[in-house]
Amino acid sequence: MYKALILFSVIAVASCGGEHETAAAIDSQPDSIHCLLPCDSIGVELGDSTYMFGDIWGRCVFPDGTTGILDQAGGTVSFFSGDGEFIRSFSPMGEGPGEFTSIDRLGCDENGNIMIASFYGRKIAWFDSDLELIDEIRFTSTRSGPVKAYPTSDLGTVAITLVFSGEDSAGTEVSLFRGAVEPEVTYRRRMALFDQFGQYQLETDIKACCDLQGRVAVADRSYDTYNIVCYSANGDTLFVIDEPFERTRRSREDIDREIAVAENNWREAVGSLAGFNYEPDENAPSIHSLGFDSRRRLWVRSGVDTSVYSIYDSTGVFQYRCYLRMPSWQIVRNWNVEFSPYGILASPADPEMYPLVYVLKEEIVPAE
Protein backbone atom coordinates (compact mmCIF):
# COMPACT_ATOMS: atom_id res chain seq x y z
CA MET A 1 0.00 0.00 0.00
CA TYR A 2 1.35 3.41 -0.94
CA LYS A 3 1.80 6.11 1.64
CA ALA A 4 1.84 9.15 -0.59
CA LEU A 5 2.73 12.57 0.73
CA ILE A 6 0.41 14.98 -1.03
CA LEU A 7 2.28 17.93 -2.48
CA PHE A 8 -0.53 19.69 -4.33
CA SER A 9 -0.22 22.81 -2.21
CA VAL A 10 3.45 22.83 -3.21
CA ILE A 11 2.60 22.41 -6.89
CA ALA A 12 0.13 25.28 -6.61
CA VAL A 13 2.66 27.71 -5.12
CA ALA A 14 2.86 30.62 -7.53
CA SER A 15 6.11 31.68 -9.10
CA CYS A 16 6.60 35.26 -10.13
CA GLY A 17 8.93 36.98 -12.54
CA GLY A 18 8.91 38.77 -15.83
CA GLU A 19 6.12 38.48 -18.38
CA HIS A 20 6.11 35.27 -20.40
CA GLU A 21 6.30 36.38 -24.04
CA THR A 22 4.91 33.18 -25.56
CA ALA A 23 3.52 34.57 -28.81
CA ALA A 24 5.26 36.60 -31.45
CA ALA A 25 2.09 38.53 -32.31
CA ILE A 26 1.47 41.81 -30.49
CA ASP A 27 -1.87 42.98 -29.14
CA SER A 28 -4.15 44.57 -31.73
CA GLN A 29 -4.38 47.85 -29.81
CA PRO A 30 -0.89 48.83 -28.55
CA ASP A 31 -2.27 51.81 -26.62
CA SER A 32 -4.56 49.56 -24.58
CA ILE A 33 -4.47 46.17 -22.90
CA HIS A 34 -6.95 43.42 -22.10
CA CYS A 35 -7.52 42.86 -18.40
CA LEU A 36 -9.51 40.51 -16.18
CA LEU A 37 -11.09 42.75 -13.56
CA PRO A 38 -13.40 42.08 -10.59
CA CYS A 39 -16.93 43.44 -11.06
CA ASP A 40 -18.56 41.94 -7.96
CA SER A 41 -17.72 39.80 -4.94
CA ILE A 42 -19.32 37.38 -2.50
CA GLY A 43 -17.95 37.11 1.03
CA VAL A 44 -17.49 39.23 4.15
CA GLU A 45 -15.05 39.27 7.04
CA LEU A 46 -17.72 39.74 9.71
CA GLY A 47 -21.51 39.86 9.65
CA ASP A 48 -24.04 37.55 8.04
CA SER A 49 -22.71 34.00 8.52
CA THR A 50 -24.09 32.90 5.14
CA TYR A 51 -21.45 35.15 3.53
CA MET A 52 -18.56 34.04 5.75
CA PHE A 53 -16.33 31.24 4.46
CA GLY A 54 -13.58 29.18 6.05
CA ASP A 55 -11.55 27.73 3.15
CA ILE A 56 -12.85 28.13 -0.41
CA TRP A 57 -11.78 25.23 -2.64
CA GLY A 58 -14.45 25.31 -5.36
CA ARG A 59 -16.36 27.98 -7.24
CA CYS A 60 -18.76 27.66 -10.16
CA VAL A 61 -21.20 29.72 -12.24
CA PHE A 62 -24.38 27.86 -13.23
CA PRO A 63 -26.36 28.29 -16.49
CA ASP A 64 -28.96 30.51 -14.76
CA GLY A 65 -26.27 32.83 -13.35
CA THR A 66 -26.25 31.30 -9.88
CA THR A 67 -22.84 31.13 -8.20
CA GLY A 68 -21.88 28.06 -6.16
CA ILE A 69 -19.11 28.25 -3.55
CA LEU A 70 -17.58 25.15 -1.94
CA ASP A 71 -16.24 25.75 1.55
CA GLN A 72 -14.02 22.82 2.48
CA ALA A 73 -13.65 23.91 6.09
CA GLY A 74 -17.41 24.02 6.61
CA GLY A 75 -18.18 21.05 4.38
CA THR A 76 -20.82 23.05 2.55
CA VAL A 77 -21.78 24.26 -0.90
CA SER A 78 -23.61 27.60 -0.85
CA PHE A 79 -25.61 29.07 -3.71
CA PHE A 80 -26.04 32.77 -4.50
CA SER A 81 -28.14 34.57 -7.11
CA GLY A 82 -26.66 36.57 -9.95
CA ASP A 83 -27.05 39.62 -7.71
CA GLY A 84 -25.11 37.95 -4.90
CA GLU A 85 -28.13 37.18 -2.70
CA PHE A 86 -27.93 34.00 -0.62
CA ILE A 87 -30.27 31.25 -1.87
CA ARG A 88 -29.47 28.09 0.07
CA SER A 89 -26.69 25.92 1.48
CA PHE A 90 -26.08 22.21 1.09
CA SER A 91 -23.87 19.91 3.17
CA PRO A 92 -23.11 16.50 1.63
CA MET A 93 -20.99 15.35 4.56
CA GLY A 94 -21.37 11.77 5.77
CA GLU A 95 -20.47 8.23 4.77
CA GLY A 96 -23.49 7.11 2.75
CA PRO A 97 -24.35 7.34 -0.96
CA GLY A 98 -23.74 10.86 -2.24
CA GLU A 99 -21.96 11.81 0.97
CA PHE A 100 -18.33 12.75 1.59
CA THR A 101 -15.80 12.83 4.40
CA SER A 102 -14.28 15.91 2.70
CA ILE A 103 -15.12 17.96 -0.38
CA ASP A 104 -12.85 20.04 -2.59
CA ARG A 105 -14.13 20.27 -6.21
CA LEU A 106 -17.31 21.80 -7.64
CA GLY A 107 -18.77 22.09 -11.14
CA CYS A 108 -21.96 21.94 -13.19
CA ASP A 109 -23.20 20.93 -16.63
CA GLU A 110 -25.44 22.66 -19.16
CA ASN A 111 -28.56 21.33 -17.40
CA GLY A 112 -27.61 22.72 -14.01
CA ASN A 113 -26.64 19.34 -12.57
CA ILE A 114 -24.04 19.64 -9.84
CA MET A 115 -20.70 17.81 -9.67
CA ILE A 116 -18.92 17.48 -6.32
CA ALA A 117 -15.60 15.65 -5.98
CA SER A 118 -13.19 14.73 -3.23
CA PHE A 119 -9.50 13.88 -3.42
CA TYR A 120 -9.22 12.31 0.03
CA GLY A 121 -12.71 10.78 -0.18
CA ARG A 122 -11.87 9.26 -3.61
CA LYS A 123 -15.27 10.08 -5.00
CA ILE A 124 -17.14 12.02 -7.71
CA ALA A 125 -20.88 12.52 -7.28
CA TRP A 126 -23.51 14.13 -9.49
CA PHE A 127 -26.68 15.75 -8.13
CA ASP A 128 -29.67 17.27 -9.92
CA SER A 129 -30.77 20.86 -9.34
CA ASP A 130 -32.93 19.68 -6.43
CA LEU A 131 -29.79 18.22 -4.82
CA GLU A 132 -30.93 14.62 -5.35
CA LEU A 133 -28.13 12.14 -6.04
CA ILE A 134 -27.95 11.01 -9.69
CA ASP A 135 -24.75 8.99 -9.79
CA GLU A 136 -21.40 8.56 -8.05
CA ILE A 137 -18.01 6.98 -8.65
CA ARG A 138 -15.80 5.60 -5.86
CA PHE A 139 -12.16 5.11 -6.84
CA THR A 140 -10.05 2.12 -5.84
CA SER A 141 -6.69 1.95 -4.06
CA THR A 142 -4.77 2.04 -7.36
CA ARG A 143 -6.13 5.52 -8.13
CA SER A 144 -6.49 8.61 -5.95
CA GLY A 145 -9.53 10.82 -5.86
CA PRO A 146 -9.55 13.75 -8.30
CA VAL A 147 -6.74 16.25 -7.89
CA LYS A 148 -8.81 18.37 -10.29
CA ALA A 149 -12.23 17.61 -11.77
CA TYR A 150 -13.99 19.26 -14.70
CA PRO A 151 -17.62 18.56 -15.67
CA THR A 152 -18.59 17.78 -19.24
CA SER A 153 -21.81 16.74 -20.98
CA ASP A 154 -23.93 13.67 -20.13
CA LEU A 155 -22.74 13.60 -16.50
CA GLY A 156 -19.13 13.05 -17.54
CA THR A 157 -16.13 14.24 -15.54
CA VAL A 158 -12.62 14.85 -16.83
CA ALA A 159 -10.41 14.23 -13.81
CA ILE A 160 -6.73 14.52 -13.00
CA THR A 161 -5.85 11.64 -10.66
CA LEU A 162 -2.75 10.05 -9.20
CA VAL A 163 -2.25 6.46 -10.37
CA PHE A 164 -0.15 3.67 -8.85
CA SER A 165 1.22 0.61 -10.62
CA GLY A 166 3.17 -2.21 -9.05
CA GLU A 167 5.41 -1.54 -6.09
CA ASP A 168 7.51 1.29 -7.42
CA SER A 169 5.61 3.18 -10.12
CA ALA A 170 3.31 6.18 -9.68
CA GLY A 171 2.19 9.14 -11.72
CA THR A 172 -0.56 11.39 -13.01
CA GLU A 173 -3.38 10.70 -15.45
CA VAL A 174 -6.01 12.81 -17.22
CA SER A 175 -9.10 10.77 -18.08
CA LEU A 176 -12.83 10.95 -18.77
CA PHE A 177 -15.08 9.14 -16.29
CA ARG A 178 -18.76 8.51 -16.81
CA GLY A 179 -20.59 6.29 -14.34
CA ALA A 180 -17.73 3.80 -13.84
CA VAL A 181 -14.46 3.62 -11.96
CA GLU A 182 -12.54 2.70 -15.12
CA PRO A 183 -11.93 5.65 -17.47
CA GLU A 184 -13.89 5.92 -20.68
CA VAL A 185 -10.99 7.78 -22.35
CA THR A 186 -7.44 8.45 -21.13
CA TYR A 187 -5.91 11.58 -22.66
CA ARG A 188 -2.50 11.49 -20.99
CA ARG A 189 -0.60 9.42 -18.44
CA ARG A 190 2.87 10.17 -17.02
CA MET A 191 4.69 7.75 -14.72
CA ALA A 192 7.82 7.89 -12.56
CA LEU A 193 9.42 6.00 -9.70
CA PHE A 194 7.29 6.19 -6.57
CA ASP A 195 8.87 7.95 -3.60
CA GLN A 196 7.46 8.69 -0.18
CA PHE A 197 8.45 12.35 -0.47
CA GLY A 198 5.95 12.84 -3.30
CA GLN A 199 8.57 14.05 -5.77
CA TYR A 200 6.90 11.91 -8.44
CA GLN A 201 3.92 14.25 -8.30
CA LEU A 202 6.06 17.15 -9.49
CA GLU A 203 7.81 15.02 -12.10
CA THR A 204 4.52 13.82 -13.62
CA ASP A 205 2.29 16.85 -12.98
CA ILE A 206 -0.22 17.64 -15.77
CA LYS A 207 -2.31 20.76 -16.36
CA ALA A 208 -5.70 20.25 -18.00
CA CYS A 209 -9.15 21.70 -18.60
CA CYS A 210 -12.26 20.78 -20.57
CA ASP A 211 -15.43 22.38 -21.90
CA LEU A 212 -18.99 21.10 -21.94
CA GLN A 213 -18.56 19.94 -25.55
CA GLY A 214 -15.91 17.51 -24.33
CA ARG A 215 -12.78 19.19 -25.68
CA VAL A 216 -9.82 18.59 -23.37
CA ALA A 217 -6.63 20.67 -23.32
CA VAL A 218 -3.55 19.10 -21.71
CA ALA A 219 -0.05 20.36 -20.91
CA ASP A 220 2.78 18.64 -19.03
CA ARG A 221 4.47 20.56 -16.24
CA SER A 222 7.71 21.60 -17.95
CA TYR A 223 10.57 24.00 -17.34
CA ASP A 224 11.90 23.80 -20.91
CA THR A 225 8.95 23.57 -23.31
CA TYR A 226 5.61 25.27 -23.93
CA ASN A 227 3.37 22.61 -25.44
CA ILE A 228 -0.41 22.15 -25.26
CA VAL A 229 -2.51 19.50 -27.00
CA CYS A 230 -6.28 19.86 -27.41
CA TYR A 231 -8.25 16.63 -27.81
CA SER A 232 -11.81 15.83 -28.80
CA ALA A 233 -13.96 13.98 -26.27
CA ASN A 234 -12.98 10.61 -27.76
CA GLY A 235 -9.25 11.42 -27.68
CA ASP A 236 -8.55 12.61 -31.24
CA THR A 237 -6.04 15.46 -31.53
CA LEU A 238 -7.73 18.72 -32.58
CA PHE A 239 -4.76 21.08 -32.47
CA VAL A 240 -1.32 21.52 -30.91
CA ILE A 241 0.22 24.71 -29.52
CA ASP A 242 4.02 24.52 -29.46
CA GLU A 243 5.93 27.75 -28.82
CA PRO A 244 9.49 28.71 -27.86
CA PHE A 245 10.18 28.97 -24.14
CA GLU A 246 13.33 30.03 -22.30
CA ARG A 247 14.13 28.65 -18.87
CA THR A 248 13.51 31.32 -16.26
CA ARG A 249 14.99 31.20 -12.77
CA ARG A 250 12.67 31.73 -9.84
CA SER A 251 13.41 34.10 -6.99
CA ARG A 252 14.99 32.78 -3.81
CA GLU A 253 11.84 33.89 -1.98
CA ASP A 254 9.66 31.65 -4.15
CA ILE A 255 11.94 28.66 -3.69
CA ASP A 256 12.11 29.13 0.09
CA ARG A 257 8.33 29.42 0.24
CA GLU A 258 7.91 26.16 -1.66
CA ILE A 259 10.33 24.38 0.68
CA ALA A 260 8.44 25.72 3.70
CA VAL A 261 5.15 24.36 2.33
CA ALA A 262 6.76 20.99 1.62
CA GLU A 263 8.19 20.88 5.15
CA ASN A 264 4.76 21.60 6.61
CA ASN A 265 3.16 18.85 4.51
CA TRP A 266 5.86 16.38 5.54
CA ARG A 267 5.51 17.26 9.22
CA GLU A 268 1.74 16.77 9.05
CA ALA A 269 2.16 13.42 7.28
CA VAL A 270 4.88 11.80 9.44
CA GLY A 271 4.90 13.89 12.63
CA SER A 272 8.42 15.30 12.27
CA LEU A 273 10.99 16.36 9.68
CA ALA A 274 12.95 13.13 10.04
CA GLY A 275 13.81 11.87 6.55
CA PHE A 276 12.68 15.08 4.84
CA ASN A 277 14.53 15.59 1.56
CA TYR A 278 12.86 17.94 -0.89
CA GLU A 279 14.67 19.77 -3.69
CA PRO A 280 12.46 22.14 -5.72
CA ASP A 281 13.37 23.10 -9.24
CA GLU A 282 15.03 26.50 -9.39
CA ASN A 283 13.21 27.38 -12.61
CA ALA A 284 9.62 28.43 -13.19
CA PRO A 285 7.28 26.13 -15.13
CA SER A 286 6.15 27.38 -18.52
CA ILE A 287 2.42 26.93 -17.81
CA HIS A 288 0.53 27.46 -14.57
CA SER A 289 -3.01 26.46 -15.59
CA LEU A 290 -5.53 26.21 -18.45
CA GLY A 291 -9.19 27.14 -18.93
CA PHE A 292 -11.91 27.36 -21.59
CA ASP A 293 -14.30 30.32 -21.59
CA SER A 294 -17.83 30.89 -22.95
CA ARG A 295 -16.47 31.55 -26.46
CA ARG A 296 -14.54 28.26 -26.47
CA ARG A 297 -11.28 30.19 -26.26
CA LEU A 298 -8.35 28.66 -24.40
CA TRP A 299 -6.78 30.76 -21.64
CA VAL A 300 -3.20 29.75 -20.78
CA ARG A 301 -1.84 31.18 -17.55
CA SER A 302 1.88 31.79 -17.51
CA GLY A 303 3.97 29.90 -14.97
CA VAL A 304 6.59 32.65 -15.01
CA ASP A 305 4.18 35.51 -14.30
CA THR A 306 0.83 34.20 -13.08
CA SER A 307 -0.90 37.53 -13.77
CA VAL A 308 -0.51 36.98 -17.53
CA TYR A 309 -2.77 34.90 -19.77
CA SER A 310 -2.22 34.04 -23.43
CA ILE A 311 -5.56 33.59 -25.19
CA TYR A 312 -6.08 31.26 -28.17
CA ASP A 313 -9.17 30.85 -30.33
CA SER A 314 -11.08 27.57 -30.72
CA THR A 315 -8.55 26.34 -33.30
CA GLY A 316 -5.44 27.14 -31.24
CA VAL A 317 -4.48 30.41 -32.92
CA PHE A 318 -3.00 33.03 -30.58
CA GLN A 319 -5.18 36.13 -30.15
CA TYR A 320 -3.71 38.39 -27.46
CA ARG A 321 -2.56 38.54 -23.86
CA CYS A 322 -4.77 39.41 -20.93
CA TYR A 323 -3.65 40.59 -17.50
CA LEU A 324 -5.20 39.61 -14.18
CA ARG A 325 -5.76 42.76 -12.11
CA MET A 326 -7.06 42.10 -8.61
CA PRO A 327 -7.68 44.48 -5.67
CA SER A 328 -4.44 45.63 -4.07
CA TRP A 329 -5.84 45.59 -0.53
CA GLN A 330 -5.90 41.78 -0.59
CA ILE A 331 -2.19 40.88 -0.49
CA VAL A 332 -2.13 37.47 -2.18
CA ARG A 333 0.61 35.43 -3.79
CA ASN A 334 -1.72 33.30 -5.89
CA TRP A 335 -5.30 33.55 -7.16
CA ASN A 336 -7.41 30.52 -8.01
CA VAL A 337 -9.24 31.43 -11.24
CA GLU A 338 -12.03 29.24 -12.65
CA PHE A 339 -13.25 29.53 -16.25
CA SER A 340 -16.58 28.12 -17.42
CA PRO A 341 -19.13 28.69 -20.21
CA TYR A 342 -21.14 30.80 -17.78
CA GLY A 343 -18.57 33.05 -16.15
CA ILE A 344 -15.14 33.56 -14.63
CA LEU A 345 -14.56 33.48 -10.87
CA ALA A 346 -11.51 33.97 -8.67
CA SER A 347 -10.64 33.58 -5.01
CA PRO A 348 -7.37 34.04 -3.10
CA ALA A 349 -5.47 30.81 -2.55
CA ASP A 350 -3.80 32.21 0.56
CA PRO A 351 -5.84 35.21 1.74
CA GLU A 352 -4.19 37.70 4.07
CA MET A 353 -7.60 39.03 5.07
CA TYR A 354 -10.58 36.68 4.57
CA PRO A 355 -11.87 34.24 1.93
CA LEU A 356 -14.21 35.54 -0.76
CA VAL A 357 -15.07 35.01 -4.41
CA TYR A 358 -14.75 37.66 -7.12
CA VAL A 359 -16.79 37.71 -10.30
CA LEU A 360 -14.44 38.69 -13.14
CA LYS A 361 -15.03 40.29 -16.51
CA GLU A 362 -12.70 41.01 -19.40
CA GLU A 363 -12.23 44.67 -20.31
CA ILE A 364 -9.95 46.73 -22.53
CA VAL A 365 -8.24 49.48 -20.55
CA PRO A 366 -5.59 52.12 -21.36
CA ALA A 367 -2.05 50.78 -21.22
CA GLU A 368 -0.09 51.95 -18.20
Question: Can you tell me about this structure?
Answer:
The chain has three helices and 24 strands. 39% of the residues are buried. The chain has a single domain (8-366), classed as Neuraminidase. Strand 12 (169-177) and strand 13 (185-193) form a beta hairpin. It is mainly β. The chain has helices spanning 8-11, 199-203, 252-270; strands spanning 32-42, 56-61, 67-71, 76-80, 86-90, 105-108, 114-118, 123-127, 133-138, 143-152, 156-165, 169-177, 185-193, 206-210, 216-220, 226-231, 237-243, 287-292, 298-302, 308-312, 318-324, 335-340, 343-348, 357-366.
CATH superfamily: TolB, C-terminal domain
Per DSSP, what share of the residues sits in E-state strands of 2 or more residues?
Answer: 35-45%
What's the story with the biggest beta sheet? 8 strands, mixed
User: What's the number of extended β-strand segments?
Assistant: 24
**Which structural category fits the helices and strands?**
mainly beta
Give me the CATH fold name. Answer: Neuraminidase
Reading off the top of the CATH hierarchy, the class is best stated as: Mainly Beta
Q: State the low-pLDDT regions, or none.
A: 1-6, 13-28
Query: What is the string of SSEs from the N terminus onward?
Result: HEEEEEEEEEEEEEHEEEEHEEEEEEE
Number of structurally distinct domains: 1
Overall pLDDT metric: 89
Read across the widest sheet, the strand sequence of neighbours is 18-19-20-21-1-24-23-22
Radius of gyration: 20 Å
